[in-house]
Design goal:
Elements lengths: L4 H11 L3 H47 L8 H5 L1
């Protein structure tokens, strides 16, 4: 895999910094990339389940319109 211009630019920028600062930057990048990966994972999971969520919402709306639903009894949930 060849390096993109963006990766080459970042590499040159890092090389111009003292080693201790390079380590700090790399640690921040690791954390940032891990967060991005988590977000991508959640986006992908949401995208995969979106049709099911839409279908469930439609069923719920239909049940409400047909009078087949009841308001939530929060006191029953506490028991």
């Amino acid at each position: 895999m060849s390096s993109t211009p963006a990766i080459l630019a970042i590499t040159k920028m890092l090389e111009s910094l003292p080693e201790s600062v390079q380590e700090q930057v790399v640690e921040h990048l690791r954390e940032y990339l891990a967060d991005l990966q988590d977000e991508l994972k959640w986006d992908n999971l949401f995208e995969q389940t979106q049709p099911q969520l839409v279908a469930a919402a439609r069923r719920a709306k239909q049940e409400i319109a047909q009078g087949r639903s009841q308001p939530m009894d929060y006191e029953r949930l506490r028991s």
